[in-house]
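Sharing a chain and its predicted structure for anyone who wants a worked example. Both blocks are below, sequence first, tokens second.
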Amino acid sequence: YPSYSRVFAEKLNYLTWVVLKAHTRNRSGEITLRSNDPRDVPSINFNYFGEGGDEDLAAVVDGIRFVRRLSANLKSQGMIEEEELPGEHLQTDEELKEFIRSNSWGHHASCTSAIGPLDQNGVLGSDFRVHKTQGLRVVDASAFPRIPGFFIACATYMIGEKAAEVILSQCVGNKG
């Protein structure tokens, strides 16, 4: 949610557990162009827990239950006063799933324009050009066929370096 990081500066006596489902099975998110203007921000729909998302949703519920087990001893010793989110009042799988569906968020869109052959649902060639399109390359985390790890920043820098090398080599050879 907007300004979520302010809480960390305001409430200094907190223990935070982050439950993260990094290697999702869900492949139903999408990024689409809003217009033919390349400066127009694309429409991004993560479609959390969409197609194939039942396993992901169950994994996040398991993660919450795991954190609760780890925290139980600290709570019994009075080192943790209460669980703020999702809140101890949510106990059943369905209650936790509804909380997860309503509160999950992310900002690392990836894998929507995967490098690969067109006949295997690839969007980009190995030179980062969009298949069957002239003058358009995609060089960001969307080029990954699968999420490369928990924190994709380093992998995204690496793909940027590789793309720069490919583009420069094609410009030097007048293939540009």
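Comments welcome. The first strand starts at residue 30 and ends at 32.
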